[in-house]
From TrEMBL:
Pfam families given in the database record: ArdcN (PF08401), MPTase-PolyVal (PF18818)
Domain N-terminal: 26-146
Signal sequence extent: none
InterPro entries associated with the record: Antirestriction_ArdC, ArdC_N, MPTase-PolyVal
Protein name: DUF1738 domain-containing protein
Record-annotated Polyvalent protein metallopeptidase domain positions: 175-300
Naturally occurring in which organism (per UniProt): Spirosoma foliorum
MF annotations from Gene Ontology: single-stranded DNA binding
Protein backbone atom coordinates (compact mmCIF):
# COMPACT_ATOMS: atom_id res chain seq x y z
CA UNK A 1 0.00 0.00 0.00
CA UNK A 2 1.32 3.42 -0.91
CA UNK A 3 0.43 6.55 1.03
CA UNK A 4 0.32 9.61 -1.19
CA UNK A 5 -1.05 13.13 -1.00
CA UNK A 6 -3.69 14.03 -3.56
CA UNK A 7 -2.20 15.99 -6.42
CA UNK A 8 -3.33 19.60 -6.66
CA UNK A 9 -3.85 21.29 -10.00
CA UNK A 10 -1.94 24.47 -10.70
CA UNK A 11 -4.89 25.98 -12.59
CA UNK A 12 -6.40 29.14 -11.16
CA UNK A 13 -10.08 28.21 -11.25
CA UNK A 14 -11.53 29.39 -7.96
CA UNK A 15 -14.17 28.30 -5.50
CA UNK A 16 -17.56 29.85 -6.24
CA UNK A 17 -18.32 33.46 -5.38
CA UNK A 18 -21.17 33.23 -2.92
CA UNK A 19 -24.29 35.32 -3.29
CA UNK A 20 -26.75 36.34 -0.59
CA UNK A 21 -28.81 33.48 0.75
CA UNK A 22 -32.09 33.58 2.64
CA UNK A 23 -30.80 30.78 4.84
CA UNK A 24 -29.73 32.16 8.22
CA UNK A 25 -26.76 30.91 10.21
CA UNK A 26 -29.18 29.15 12.54
CA UNK A 27 -30.89 27.44 9.59
CA UNK A 28 -27.59 26.10 8.24
CA UNK A 29 -26.39 24.70 11.56
CA UNK A 30 -29.83 23.21 12.29
CA UNK A 31 -30.12 21.58 8.86
CA UNK A 32 -26.74 19.89 9.12
CA UNK A 33 -27.23 18.83 12.73
CA UNK A 34 -30.79 17.57 12.26
CA UNK A 35 -29.67 15.28 9.41
CA UNK A 36 -26.92 13.77 11.55
CA UNK A 37 -29.20 13.52 14.59
CA UNK A 38 -31.71 11.61 12.46
CA UNK A 39 -29.02 9.14 11.41
CA UNK A 40 -27.77 8.72 14.97
CA UNK A 41 -31.27 8.09 16.28
CA UNK A 42 -31.52 5.29 13.71
CA UNK A 43 -28.27 3.81 14.99
CA UNK A 44 -26.15 5.02 12.06
CA UNK A 45 -22.94 7.00 12.15
CA UNK A 46 -23.22 9.20 9.06
CA UNK A 47 -19.48 9.55 8.63
CA UNK A 48 -18.99 5.76 8.64
CA UNK A 49 -21.43 5.06 5.82
CA UNK A 50 -18.83 5.00 3.03
CA UNK A 51 -17.00 2.09 4.67
CA UNK A 52 -20.26 0.16 5.00
CA UNK A 53 -21.16 0.47 1.32
CA UNK A 54 -20.23 -2.60 -0.74
CA UNK A 55 -19.22 -0.54 -3.76
CA UNK A 56 -16.99 1.77 -1.72
CA UNK A 57 -15.40 -0.71 0.67
CA UNK A 58 -11.60 -0.25 0.77
CA UNK A 59 -11.91 2.65 -1.70
CA UNK A 60 -12.86 5.49 0.65
CA UNK A 61 -11.16 8.83 0.26
CA UNK A 62 -12.08 12.33 1.33
CA UNK A 63 -14.45 14.12 -1.06
CA UNK A 64 -12.39 16.07 -3.60
CA UNK A 65 -12.87 19.38 -5.36
CA UNK A 66 -12.51 19.59 -9.15
CA UNK A 67 -8.74 20.21 -8.71
CA UNK A 68 -8.04 17.29 -6.36
CA UNK A 69 -8.01 19.38 -3.16
CA UNK A 70 -9.95 17.57 -0.41
CA UNK A 71 -12.98 19.16 1.20
CA UNK A 72 -12.69 19.69 4.95
CA UNK A 73 -14.70 19.79 8.14
CA UNK A 74 -18.46 19.31 8.06
CA UNK A 75 -18.47 19.13 4.23
CA UNK A 76 -16.71 15.74 4.44
CA UNK A 77 -19.61 14.28 6.42
CA UNK A 78 -22.26 15.85 4.20
CA UNK A 79 -20.71 14.64 0.94
CA UNK A 80 -19.90 11.17 2.26
CA UNK A 81 -23.52 10.80 3.33
CA UNK A 82 -24.88 11.86 -0.08
CA UNK A 83 -22.41 9.60 -1.93
CA UNK A 84 -23.69 6.56 -0.06
CA UNK A 85 -27.36 7.51 -0.38
CA UNK A 86 -27.03 8.09 -4.14
CA UNK A 87 -24.50 5.31 -4.91
CA UNK A 88 -21.84 7.74 -6.18
CA UNK A 89 -18.39 6.17 -6.51
CA UNK A 90 -16.47 9.18 -7.82
CA UNK A 91 -14.90 11.30 -5.07
CA UNK A 92 -15.10 14.50 -7.19
CA UNK A 93 -17.61 17.30 -6.57
CA UNK A 94 -17.98 20.72 -8.19
CA UNK A 95 -20.39 23.60 -8.76
CA UNK A 96 -22.54 24.02 -11.88
CA UNK A 97 -20.26 26.84 -13.03
CA UNK A 98 -17.06 24.84 -12.44
CA UNK A 99 -18.47 22.01 -14.58
CA UNK A 100 -19.11 24.46 -17.42
CA UNK A 101 -15.58 25.86 -17.10
CA UNK A 102 -14.32 22.29 -17.54
CA UNK A 103 -16.39 22.12 -20.76
CA UNK A 104 -18.81 19.68 -19.13
CA UNK A 105 -22.46 19.95 -18.12
CA UNK A 106 -24.68 18.83 -15.24
CA UNK A 107 -27.38 16.52 -16.57
CA UNK A 108 -30.88 17.99 -16.69
CA UNK A 109 -32.93 17.13 -13.61
CA UNK A 110 -29.96 16.29 -11.37
CA UNK A 111 -30.28 17.53 -7.78
CA UNK A 112 -27.20 19.10 -6.20
CA UNK A 113 -25.91 18.71 -2.65
CA UNK A 114 -25.77 21.78 -0.45
CA UNK A 115 -22.55 22.27 1.48
CA UNK A 116 -21.13 25.25 3.35
CA UNK A 117 -18.37 27.79 2.95
CA UNK A 118 -16.79 29.01 6.19
CA UNK A 119 -15.09 32.37 6.57
CA UNK A 120 -14.78 35.31 8.95
CA UNK A 121 -15.99 38.90 8.82
CA UNK A 122 -13.48 41.43 10.14
CA UNK A 123 -15.31 44.17 12.01
CA UNK A 124 -13.99 47.23 13.84
CA UNK A 125 -15.82 48.01 17.05
CA UNK A 126 -15.39 50.32 20.03
CA UNK A 127 -14.98 48.67 23.42
CA UNK A 128 -16.05 49.96 26.84
CA UNK A 129 -12.82 51.98 27.15
CA UNK A 130 -13.47 53.78 23.90
CA UNK A 131 -10.71 51.87 22.14
CA UNK A 132 -11.09 50.54 18.61
CA UNK A 133 -10.79 46.77 18.51
CA UNK A 134 -10.93 44.37 15.57
CA UNK A 135 -13.19 41.34 15.95
CA UNK A 136 -13.33 38.35 13.64
CA UNK A 137 -16.84 36.96 13.37
CA UNK A 138 -17.14 33.46 11.84
CA UNK A 139 -19.97 32.74 9.41
CA UNK A 140 -21.23 30.01 7.11
CA UNK A 141 -22.76 30.35 3.65
CA UNK A 142 -24.39 27.50 1.72
CA UNK A 143 -23.66 26.60 -1.89
CA UNK A 144 -24.47 23.65 -4.13
CA UNK A 145 -22.18 21.06 -5.69
CA UNK A 146 -22.69 18.04 -7.94
CA UNK A 147 -20.89 14.73 -8.01
CA UNK A 148 -18.97 13.80 -11.17
CA UNK A 149 -21.50 10.99 -11.64
CA UNK A 150 -24.13 13.71 -12.29
CA UNK A 151 -22.03 15.48 -14.92
CA UNK A 152 -21.40 14.62 -18.57
CA UNK A 153 -18.26 15.54 -20.48
CA UNK A 154 -15.60 15.51 -17.75
CA UNK A 155 -12.19 13.94 -18.28
CA UNK A 156 -11.91 10.19 -17.70
CA UNK A 157 -10.00 10.67 -14.43
CA UNK A 158 -13.09 12.18 -12.78
CA UNK A 159 -15.10 8.99 -13.25
CA UNK A 160 -12.54 6.43 -12.09
CA UNK A 161 -13.34 4.55 -8.90
CA UNK A 162 -10.35 4.56 -6.49
CA UNK A 163 -8.42 1.29 -6.49
CA UNK A 164 -9.05 -0.85 -3.40
CA UNK A 165 -6.17 -1.07 -0.94
CA UNK A 166 -5.49 -4.63 0.17
CA UNK A 167 -3.46 -5.18 3.31
CA UNK A 168 -1.91 -8.47 4.44
CA UNK A 169 -3.96 -9.28 7.56
CA UNK A 170 -1.05 -11.19 9.13
CA UNK A 171 1.48 -8.39 9.25
CA UNK A 172 1.88 -4.78 10.28
CA UNK A 173 1.67 -2.25 7.47
CA UNK A 174 5.06 -0.60 7.21
CA UNK A 175 3.80 2.63 5.62
CA UNK A 176 1.35 3.14 8.48
CA UNK A 177 3.97 2.20 11.06
CA UNK A 178 6.23 4.90 9.63
CA UNK A 179 3.42 7.46 9.51
CA UNK A 180 2.48 7.02 13.17
CA UNK A 181 6.12 6.77 14.31
CA UNK A 182 6.95 10.11 12.72
CA UNK A 183 4.50 11.89 15.00
CA UNK A 184 6.93 11.10 17.86
CA UNK A 185 3.95 10.28 20.09
CA UNK A 186 4.91 8.02 22.98
CA UNK A 187 2.99 4.77 22.44
CA UNK A 188 3.29 1.79 24.75
CA UNK A 189 1.57 -1.59 25.05
CA UNK A 190 -0.94 -2.06 27.84
CA UNK A 191 -4.35 -3.52 28.61
CA UNK A 192 -6.58 -0.96 26.90
CA UNK A 193 -6.62 1.83 24.34
CA UNK A 194 -6.39 5.26 25.93
CA UNK A 195 -4.60 8.59 25.90
CA UNK A 196 -3.35 9.68 29.34
CA UNK A 197 -2.90 13.45 29.14
CA UNK A 198 -1.19 13.79 32.54
CA UNK A 199 1.61 11.56 31.24
CA UNK A 200 1.19 12.52 27.58
CA UNK A 201 1.26 8.86 26.54
CA UNK A 202 -0.90 6.63 24.36
CA UNK A 203 -1.64 3.13 25.63
CA UNK A 204 -2.51 0.47 23.05
CA UNK A 205 -3.50 -3.20 23.48
CA UNK A 206 -1.10 -5.74 21.94
CA UNK A 207 -1.14 -5.73 18.15
CA UNK A 208 -1.89 -9.47 18.15
CA UNK A 209 -5.12 -8.91 20.12
CA UNK A 210 -6.86 -7.24 17.15
CA UNK A 211 -8.95 -9.39 14.80
CA UNK A 212 -7.90 -7.28 11.82
CA UNK A 213 -4.66 -5.45 11.23
CA UNK A 214 -6.49 -2.29 10.17
CA UNK A 215 -8.40 -2.37 13.45
CA UNK A 216 -5.17 -1.66 15.30
CA UNK A 217 -4.39 1.40 13.18
CA UNK A 218 -7.99 2.63 13.43
CA UNK A 219 -7.87 2.61 17.22
CA UNK A 220 -4.44 4.23 17.16
CA UNK A 221 -5.77 7.00 14.89
CA UNK A 222 -8.53 7.67 17.42
CA UNK A 223 -6.11 7.89 20.34
CA UNK A 224 -3.67 9.99 18.31
CA UNK A 225 -6.47 12.49 17.68
CA UNK A 226 -6.90 12.72 21.47
CA UNK A 227 -3.12 13.21 21.72
CA UNK A 228 -3.34 16.41 19.66
CA UNK A 229 -5.42 18.12 22.37
CA UNK A 230 -2.40 18.46 24.71
CA UNK A 231 -1.61 22.09 25.72
CA UNK A 232 1.73 21.90 23.89
CA UNK A 233 -0.04 20.97 20.63
CA UNK A 234 -3.55 22.21 19.77
CA UNK A 235 -4.57 22.96 23.36
CA UNK A 236 -8.11 21.67 22.76
CA UNK A 237 -10.25 22.01 25.89
CA UNK A 238 -13.90 21.11 25.46
CA UNK A 239 -14.72 21.40 29.16
CA UNK A 240 -14.26 17.82 30.27
CA UNK A 241 -14.27 17.55 34.08
CA UNK A 242 -14.86 13.85 34.60
CA UNK A 243 -15.55 10.61 32.71
CA UNK A 244 -18.87 10.62 30.90
CA UNK A 245 -19.73 14.31 31.20
CA UNK A 246 -20.62 16.61 28.30
CA UNK A 247 -17.00 17.65 27.73
CA UNK A 248 -16.03 13.97 27.56
CA UNK A 249 -18.73 13.28 24.94
CA UNK A 250 -17.58 16.27 22.87
CA UNK A 251 -13.92 15.19 22.89
CA UNK A 252 -14.88 11.60 21.98
CA UNK A 253 -16.89 12.89 19.02
CA UNK A 254 -13.91 14.94 17.81
CA UNK A 255 -11.62 11.90 18.14
CA UNK A 256 -14.17 9.72 16.29
CA UNK A 257 -14.30 12.14 13.37
CA UNK A 258 -10.52 12.62 13.40
CA UNK A 259 -9.97 8.87 13.16
CA UNK A 260 -12.36 8.67 10.18
CA UNK A 261 -10.70 11.59 8.37
CA UNK A 262 -7.25 10.11 8.95
CA UNK A 263 -8.42 6.66 7.84
CA UNK A 264 -9.70 8.16 4.59
CA UNK A 265 -6.38 9.92 4.04
CA UNK A 266 -4.31 6.79 4.66
CA UNK A 267 -6.56 4.17 3.11
CA UNK A 268 -7.85 1.96 5.92
CA UNK A 269 -11.19 1.38 7.61
CA UNK A 270 -11.87 3.22 10.90
CA UNK A 271 -12.66 1.21 14.02
CA UNK A 272 -15.86 -0.86 13.97
CA UNK A 273 -19.03 1.12 14.61
CA UNK A 274 -20.02 -1.17 17.47
CA UNK A 275 -17.03 0.03 19.46
CA UNK A 276 -18.71 3.41 19.82
CA UNK A 277 -22.32 2.32 20.25
CA UNK A 278 -22.12 3.25 23.94
CA UNK A 279 -21.35 6.84 23.01
CA UNK A 280 -24.37 7.35 20.74
CA UNK A 281 -26.70 8.56 23.48
CA UNK A 282 -24.18 11.04 24.87
CA UNK A 283 -23.45 12.36 21.37
CA UNK A 284 -27.18 12.71 20.67
CA UNK A 285 -27.65 14.77 23.82
CA UNK A 286 -24.69 17.02 23.04
CA UNK A 287 -25.96 17.70 19.51
CA UNK A 288 -29.53 18.32 20.69
CA UNK A 289 -28.26 20.80 23.28
CA UNK A 290 -25.88 22.57 20.90
CA UNK A 291 -26.92 22.66 17.24
CA UNK A 292 -23.56 24.18 16.26
CA UNK A 293 -21.34 21.52 17.79
CA UNK A 294 -21.23 18.99 14.93
CA UNK A 295 -19.81 21.74 12.69
CA UNK A 296 -17.31 22.69 15.40
CA UNK A 297 -16.39 19.04 16.05
CA UNK A 298 -15.68 18.42 12.36
CA UNK A 299 -13.53 21.55 12.26
CA UNK A 300 -11.62 20.50 15.39
CA UNK A 301 -11.11 17.02 13.94
CA UNK A 302 -9.77 18.43 10.69
CA UNK A 303 -7.33 20.65 12.59
CA UNK A 304 -6.11 17.60 14.51
CA UNK A 305 -5.56 15.59 11.32
CA UNK A 306 -3.82 18.51 9.61
CA UNK A 307 -1.54 18.83 12.65
CA UNK A 308 -0.67 15.12 12.49
CA UNK A 309 0.17 15.48 8.79
CA UNK A 310 2.56 18.36 9.54
CA UNK A 311 4.65 15.96 11.63
CA UNK A 312 5.50 13.82 8.62
CA UNK A 313 8.92 14.14 7.04
CA UNK A 314 9.89 13.60 3.37
Amino acid sequence: MTITKKSISTHTRKEPLLTHSTATQKDIYARVTDKILSDLENGNLTWRKPWNADYLASQVTRPLRWNGVPYGGINILMLWGTAVEQDYTSPYWMTFKQAIELKASVRKGEKGTQIVYADKIVKEEENAKGETVINQIPFLKPYTVFNAAQIDGLGESFYKTPEPLIANPQHRIQQLETFFAQTKAEIYTGREASYIQSRDRIQMPPFESFDRVTGYYAVLAHELTHWTKHPTRLNRDLGRKHYGDEGYAKEELVAELGACFLAADLGFEPMPEAHHSAYLQSWLQVLKDDKRFIVSAASQAQKAVEYIHTLQHP
